[in-house]
Amino acid sequence: MTTHADDLAARIGAPVELAGVAVRRPSRVRAGIDPALVTTDATALVKRGDIDVVVEVIGGIEPARTLITTAFEHGASVVSANKALLAQDGAALHAAAGEAGKDLYYEAAVAGAIPLIRPLRESLAGDKINRVMGIVNGTTNFILDKMDSTGAGYQEALDEATALGYAEADPTADVEGFDAAAKAAILAGIAFHSRVRLDDVYREGMTEVTSADFASARNMGCTIKLLAICERAADGGSVTARVHPAMIPLTHPLASVRGAYNAVFVESDAAGQLMFYGPGAGGAPTASAVLGDLVAVCRNRLAGATGPGESAYAALPVSPMGDVVTRYHISLDVADKPGVLAQVATVFAEHGVSIDTVRQQGRPDGGGEASLVVVTHRASDASLSGTVEALRNLDTVRGVASIMRVEGE
Amino acid sequence: MTTHADDLAARIGAPVELAGVAVRRPSRVRAGIDPALVTTDATALVKRGDIDVVVEVIGGIEPARTLITTAFEHGASVVSANKALLAQDGAALHAAAGEAGKDLYYEAAVAGAIPLIRPLRESLAGDKINRVMGIVNGTTNFILDKMDSTGAGYQEALDEATALGYAEADPTADVEGFDAAAKAAILAGIAFHSRVRLDDVYREGMTEVTSADFASARNMGCTIKLLAICERAADGGSVTARVHPAMIPLTHPLASVRGAYNAVFVESDAAGQLMFYGPGAGGAPTASAVLGDLVAVCRNRLAGATGPGESAYAALPVSPMGDVVTRYHISLDVADKPGVLAQVATVFAEHGVSIDTVRQQGRPDGGGEASLVVVTHRASDASLSGTVEALRNLDTVRGVASIMRVEGE
Question: What Gene Ontology terms describe what this protein does at the molecular function level (chains A, B) (predicted)?
Fold first, then answer.
């Protein structure tokens, strides 16, 4: 039996020596770590000059950003798991790595241990990627899966996720889609050889998804997932990136991704449809991704080379959400009287949104209200928004109960 | 809009120039290829000395092997899609590449466009892989999926696969598991950092799977897939590789892989359970994988480096099939009289195979025969073989209708 260090050495072609560990609380006992290697002075560590690789798993913007650029300046390559920083400042960090002739690897930043960055950057480097659509946040997938399988409401499912440790005390970053949006920015940039920043990503959380939405989804043979979707426009001249809950058919491979698992569906010209599936978070999966990058960076170091840097040559602009074209499922509360459907249909037509199906049903409690469920053909988000605004102004429309995009068909 | 050649140049950092194309029939018109570049003399082409990369998509052992080694000797790196050759002579080819200081890449050899070789070699280089289990042959998955979904028999499903172009006129390589076995050898070698040759892989085809087997599988909440399974032994000291039809639970991610798609499930210490899914064959998917490798090899060439070579340092021996431990589903035709179950149970016990469930039922047509379905706990293949041999010698056992392994639980 070999030890893990021996395995790393054999795979790299040279032993890896731990030079130091910067932590906030040095008093916390760390099994297997020589206490003499532990320091609170991260800056001094990355400035030492004899460090080959710095692994950054702090998270957040600062001090991570300054430590990473300082590491480059002092001759180290960097392996990072920092999605927020990469999504916000990926271009600058890649530039700093390039100037220093060092590597910047970050497989762990997106979808944990699932090999995704490397397949997109390298395996598909000879192909043209048209869409990346994935479940990249385990917390929200756990909540939605729970709502789907048990009929629980959002709050109840969130409480269970919190109790089981899948959701943090403040779940905002997950449930409002910030975490997924950072990953979408990183994936879109790599997939389309362009620069996509966090601010370019349209973001809608999943806190307003209801059990009624799941019932509607089931009526359509669908379920609901929080999706990160990065698309090349039909004319190829721009891209979009967005995060929002969406209905997807139960037959779609992403529909069967349960619990806290992640999965990313990639569509390209030549390869066709690919999917990458696995645990999206957690200490051990993150360690797997970080160590994979560490081996790659060390191999590059021994070869006197660096791996692929940023590839943003295509420089495609990011279009606003209004340009996104997809289908919509709209639930309206309307007056239960003749002529309402005609009024509603007219509003859709006036905005150029073609209706696929309409389902109209009286409320069991009567009361003069009915519900109207409209599923559209593909239309731009701008057209749909205009339609909904106009619907709200109709006297006969009492309320727009929900609007959900329909993807993956 | 950029052309594809421009994209490749931007991603590599230098233009790629097509130096020549060796073909058997030069008269066949090839759109977009300068006829002056076409030759029938492949040997002269790889010997030119000014070639940076040779792409080998001939298949088979010779002349591919000689052309590849000749290419290395004359200063070229090689991208290959040749699973048979890699499974048989991978070690020698890697050695030849290493001696010449050149690259040997072959992502297209296993599971078409699905990034698999690179994730295993690189992304998981810091992890310990314990099992690789996959559907790596699209033809047989198409046939089994058809049998499962329509109730068709093997021959009927094969005929449809042939008519649709999923099966070749002579389907032996697919249906007898030779193709999958070659891929299993390649995957096992990479996953376990050891040498696994085609001859080391236990192989059983799927021509004897019947609709009765699918009915049995459904009774257990399972379906049947032809699986390639590469495992590290529980004590870590050896590995096994095998290809055979097996029952897997409908809840397993591999169970929902339909049609001619491929998918490979990977289990490792830190990353946990990963799955890679996509089209396993076809011209365009193969081209995607080949071009991805081409970009990587060209980047290495520009950096004056080579990518990771063979990693076989662990040198784990390959154990025979008898050492494989799994569960079994056995259907017996037995005499319909008291005491038979006791006899059968005794035989299992004598061979150390523990029974999980037994289902006994009289035949609707009477006639003194009954069927007995036994599902075992985990046992070695050798113990199970001994059990079956002894069962065949019982007067009361009229026949062993089927033996199927149960995986993925």
Answer: homoserine dehydrogenase activity; NADP binding
Contacts with B41 (C-beta within 8 Å, 6 or more apart), sequence order: B22
| C-alpha span between A376 and A373 (Å, rounded) | 10
Q: CA of B307, closest CA in chain A: separation in Å?
A: 8
Residue of B nearest to A313 (CA): B10
Alpha helices (H) in B63-222, listed in sequence order: 64-73, 83-100, 117-118, 138-150, 154-163, 172-175, 178-191, 211-219
B275 closest CB neighbour out of A118, A269, A277: A277
Interchain pair A7, B271: CB under 8 A? no
Catalytic residues of B: 183
Q: Would you say B146 is a known binding-site residue?
A: no
Is B1 within 8 Å of A232 (Cβ atoms)?
Answer: no
Q: How far is A190 from B182, CA to CA, in rounded Å? A: 33
* Annotation says A183 is catalytic: yes
CA distance A127 to chain B (A): 5
- Which ipTM score applies to this complex? 0.93
The tokens for B157 are 């499903």
At CB < 8 A and 24+ separation, what contacts does B29-32 make? none
* pLDDT tens-digit readout, B327-345: 999 999 999 888 899 999 9
- How many alpha carbons fall within 13 Å on the CB side of residue B58? 20
**How far is C-alpha A89 from the geometric centre of its chain's CA atoms?**
17
Tokens linked to B159: 């005929």
More confident of the two residues A361 and A244 = A244
Alpha-carbon radius of gyration of chain B: 24
| Tokens linked to B211 | 């609709």
pTM: predicted TM-score of the whole model, two decimal places: 0.94
By CB atoms closer than 10 A (0-12, 13-18, 19+), residue B365 is: exposed
- B122 labelled ligand-binding: no
Coarse DSSP helix, strand, coil percentages of chain A, rounded to the nearest 5 percent: 40, 25, 35
Do B205 and B181 touch, CB atoms closer than 8 A?
Answer: no
